[in-house]
Automatic annotation (TrEMBL):
Catalysis performed (reactions): Thiol-dependent hydrolysis of ester, thioester, amide, peptide and isopeptide bonds formed by the C-terminal Gly of ubiquitin (a 76-residue protein attached to proteins as an intracellular targeting signal)
Chain intervals with Basic and acidic residues compositional bias: 1-10
Domain of life, source organism: Eukaryota
GO MF term (any one): zinc ion binding
This protein's name: Ubiquitin carboxyl-terminal hydrolase 39
One Pfam short name: zf-UBP
Amino acid sequence: MSENRGERSDSVVPDMAEPATKKRKVEVPEEDEDEDTPSVFNPRKKLCPYLDTINRQLLDFDFEKLCSVSLTRINVYACLVCGKYFQGRGTNTHAYTHSVAEAHHVFLNLHTLRFYCLPDNYEIIDTSLDDIKYVLNPTFTISDIRGLDKGNMKYSRTVDGTTLYLPGVVGLNNIKRNDYCNVVLQALAHVAPLRDYFLSEKNYAKIKRPPGDSIFTLVQRFGELMRKMWNPRNFKAHVSPHEMLQAVVLWSNKQFQITEQGDPIDFLSWFLHTLHKAMKGTKKPDSSIIYKSFLGEMKIYTRKIPPTELDDTQKALLMATDEYQEKVEDSNFLYLTCDLPPPPLFIDEFRENIIPQVNLYQLLSKFNGVSEKEYKTYKDNFMKRFEITKLPPFIILYIKRFTKNTFFLEKNPTIVNFPIKNVDFGDILTAKYRGIIKRTKYSLIANIVHDGEPGKGTYRSHIFHKGSNTWYEMQDLHVIDTLPQMITLTESYIQIYELQDD
């Protein structure tokens, strides 16, 4: 019978053979105890002789808060000596058993952020433990947030003292094949309004949501990841997005996996729309921080093309009908899709392939309200032109490199020539909206690149860190500074531009 009780957590009803007093002790919920009034069951002591056994280098709070034995999420404690998670702290619980078997005595409740010594079961109150509490749950004041992009940004040192890192420029662990998610998360972490919003948890803590609306977990996990990435007191120079990605896998119905390569633009589109929805965003432009940052507006002009086999008279008759008249539709966008021209099919006179190049403004001409592009369906053809009517504070460009045909996926290797600063989107506005929209110059802040073959390959990102005025190349855990000139030589896939101040 003692063996069965050894597997019991705090929430399980105790054996009826035990004394009544012992049953009451085991059933007391730890979270409901009075924080100010000491009890016989949970006496408080300010001094603990085991604090020097804590090993900060082994502590990692980035992974799911699960008991390593029972895999439960209820009443989970972290052993601060070995870093493992265990449930409960009462007699016969997994944490209690671990403390006795391994002589590990200092534990942290991952929910209440309170420290305890086991098996003696008293709470530890010591300010020297505040750094551990801060790593588990970093917090930022308004002045902290305002100082992130100023030029006095300082390097931080890891707990072992061997590595320097800049808050915001930290590697993300690639659990298996999630580099396509990492580059998007690293890029979004440098969109200042989005970052500032999620660094302060009170901004979204009061959002009203119906009971059982667990999709809000995605918002909370993204906020936790932002705070960890910008934490100036991290124990290590990298962060694992494990909890964030677990929420992504769950709420995308496994559309996006940790173990399989995906497409960053698909993930970015799904993630922004799902965050907007989870924060109770509506169709209004200012209904969420997502729309405030990325939502632009355009008019789409569509006209139907007559079948090519008809003669001129029949075409003229069709063009006079309502079905073939040009139609105008008001539309919103979170990103703009830029189409690359097809690469040359033949090698040049020197028997060598020349890597084709195209100017960014040539790609953007698609949205000048004049250029038309043909779109085909299974039975009809349409000509469309796009006229931008409102520019958002941050413009996301998706450079369409991959095309699927009947047999395989093809990649267009064309290099896009683009300026890092002073990209004037006013050049693609029609005269009407050029007079309405006064600020049109943007600077690049993030550039996502695909390297390798289509369907395989890897992704990396270039990030502009305003606090140090430096560009960094980030590929999972690898972070190095880079020159702006090197960014323009890459096969850009997704870019984020920020509207410049007057």
